[in-house]
Amino acid sequence: MxxxxxxxxxxEELDLVNWGEPEDMGKFPNINKLGHVKDSxxxxxxxxxxxxxxINSAGQDWREIVQAMVAxxxxxxxxxxxxxxxxxxxxxxxxxxRKGL
Length: 101
Description:
Radius of gyration: 13 Å
Order of helices and strands: EHEEHHEEH
CATH architecture: Alpha Horseshoe
Distance between the termini: 30 Å
Shape: globular
Strand order of the largest sheet: 1-2-3
Largest sheet: 3 strands, antiparallel
Number of helices: 4
Strand content: 15-25%
CATH topology: Serine Threonine Protein Phosphatase 5, Tetratricopeptide repeat
Protein backbone atom coordinates (compact mmCIF):
# COMPACT_ATOMS: atom_id res chain seq x y z
CA MET A 1 0.00 0.00 0.00
CA UNK A 2 1.29 3.46 -0.94
CA UNK A 3 1.79 5.54 2.20
CA UNK A 4 2.90 8.68 0.37
CA UNK A 5 1.20 11.92 1.33
CA UNK A 6 0.90 15.29 -0.36
CA UNK A 7 2.01 18.27 1.73
CA UNK A 8 2.19 22.02 1.26
CA UNK A 9 -1.47 22.58 0.39
CA UNK A 10 -4.42 23.60 2.53
CA UNK A 11 -7.41 21.29 2.87
CA GLU A 12 -9.39 23.78 0.77
CA GLU A 13 -6.82 23.62 -2.03
CA LEU A 14 -6.82 19.82 -1.97
CA ASP A 15 -10.63 19.84 -2.04
CA LEU A 16 -10.50 22.00 -5.18
CA VAL A 17 -8.13 19.52 -6.83
CA ASN A 18 -10.14 16.48 -5.80
CA TRP A 19 -13.72 17.69 -6.02
CA GLY A 20 -13.67 21.03 -7.84
CA GLU A 21 -15.54 21.77 -11.03
CA PRO A 22 -13.96 23.72 -13.88
CA GLU A 23 -15.70 26.92 -12.75
CA ASP A 24 -14.07 26.56 -9.31
CA MET A 25 -10.47 26.66 -10.56
CA GLY A 26 -10.25 30.45 -10.33
CA LYS A 27 -10.54 30.11 -6.54
CA PHE A 28 -6.92 28.94 -6.13
CA PRO A 29 -4.93 31.63 -4.28
CA ASN A 30 -1.78 30.41 -6.09
CA ILE A 31 -2.62 27.95 -8.84
CA ASN A 32 1.10 27.32 -9.55
CA LYS A 33 1.89 26.50 -5.92
CA LEU A 34 4.58 23.87 -5.45
CA GLY A 35 3.90 21.15 -2.90
CA HIS A 36 5.62 17.90 -2.07
CA VAL A 37 4.98 14.19 -2.00
CA LYS A 38 6.48 12.64 1.13
CA ASP A 39 7.02 8.97 1.89
CA SER A 40 6.16 7.22 5.17
CA UNK A 41 9.45 8.38 6.73
CA UNK A 42 8.58 12.02 5.85
CA UNK A 43 11.23 12.23 3.10
CA UNK A 44 10.32 14.34 0.05
CA UNK A 45 10.16 11.99 -2.94
CA UNK A 46 8.67 14.45 -5.44
CA UNK A 47 7.45 17.97 -6.02
CA UNK A 48 3.89 18.44 -7.28
CA UNK A 49 1.49 21.17 -8.38
CA UNK A 50 -2.31 21.32 -8.47
CA UNK A 51 -2.14 20.97 -12.26
CA UNK A 52 -0.09 17.78 -12.02
CA UNK A 53 -2.44 16.36 -9.38
CA UNK A 54 -5.41 16.82 -11.72
CA ILE A 55 -3.52 15.30 -14.67
CA ASN A 56 -2.43 12.35 -12.52
CA SER A 57 -5.98 11.73 -11.33
CA ALA A 58 -7.17 11.25 -14.93
CA GLY A 59 -10.73 11.78 -13.70
CA GLN A 60 -13.60 11.89 -16.15
CA ASP A 61 -13.34 15.63 -16.88
CA TRP A 62 -9.64 16.16 -16.18
CA ARG A 63 -8.92 17.86 -19.52
CA GLU A 64 -11.74 20.37 -18.99
CA ILE A 65 -10.47 21.08 -15.47
CA VAL A 66 -6.90 21.52 -16.77
CA GLN A 67 -8.15 23.99 -19.39
CA ALA A 68 -9.96 25.94 -16.65
CA MET A 69 -6.81 25.92 -14.50
CA VAL A 70 -4.74 27.25 -17.41
CA ALA A 71 -7.35 29.96 -18.01
CA UNK A 72 -6.96 30.85 -14.31
CA UNK A 73 -3.17 31.16 -14.70
CA UNK A 74 -1.77 27.64 -14.27
CA UNK A 75 1.49 27.22 -16.19
CA UNK A 76 1.67 23.96 -18.16
CA UNK A 77 5.36 24.56 -18.84
CA UNK A 78 6.51 25.46 -15.32
CA UNK A 79 9.68 23.42 -14.68
CA UNK A 80 9.38 20.85 -11.93
CA UNK A 81 12.91 19.99 -10.87
CA UNK A 82 12.10 16.93 -8.76
CA UNK A 83 9.22 14.93 -10.15
CA UNK A 84 10.19 11.56 -8.75
CA UNK A 85 13.86 12.27 -9.43
CA UNK A 86 13.63 13.93 -12.82
CA UNK A 87 12.90 17.30 -14.41
CA UNK A 88 9.57 17.68 -16.18
CA UNK A 89 6.50 19.88 -16.74
CA UNK A 90 2.77 19.30 -16.41
CA UNK A 91 2.50 19.36 -20.22
CA UNK A 92 5.11 16.62 -20.55
CA UNK A 93 3.29 14.45 -17.99
CA UNK A 94 0.00 14.90 -19.86
CA UNK A 95 1.62 14.12 -23.20
CA UNK A 96 3.53 11.09 -21.91
CA UNK A 97 0.98 9.45 -19.64
CA ARG A 98 -2.46 10.82 -20.62
CA LYS A 99 -2.35 11.04 -24.43
CA GLY A 100 -1.96 14.81 -24.32
CA LEU A 101 -4.27 17.65 -23.59
